[in-house]
Amino acid sequence: MGTTLTNQNSIAEEIKSRLRSENACYHSVQKLLSSRFLSKDLRVFVNMVLRRIFGPRRNEVTGEWRRLHNEELIDLYSSLNIVRVIKSRRMRWAGHVARKGEERGMYRVLVGKPEGKRPLGRPRRRWVDNIRMDLHGVRCGYMDWIGLAQDRDRWRTFVSAVMNLRVP
Question: Helices 152-163 and 82-100: crossing angle, nearest 10°?
């Protein structure tokens, strides 16, 4: 899936590597971004891109399409929460894998239990544990989520419910 895992199912090194490369990119353009020759009207471009992403809205009274106002763009953009996005994508992936079947390798990674002796301390959280926690957040933690994932429409409802959760 594009991520490097260690033998202990950890992606900590992958995250550190990505953060180092992102920091290097940021520091390479830092002088350019703080230059006095760069236009401060960058917000115009950002709003144009956000209008394209979020699209027009239909007026509820007249039914006509209209462009989003700047305040609406800011509300929409700031309402996205990376934790909710990650949770919903994790749920989408889990549903996809659950529908593939038990004989696939992805399924064994999703619901499998690591072999061998575990280290001291709290047990590592598995993918299935994260899915159960996400479902518990929408008050469905005790149901058979693998059976539920077989029905795409119901699973999409749960994924959107997880996306709309309040995350601190």
Answer: 160
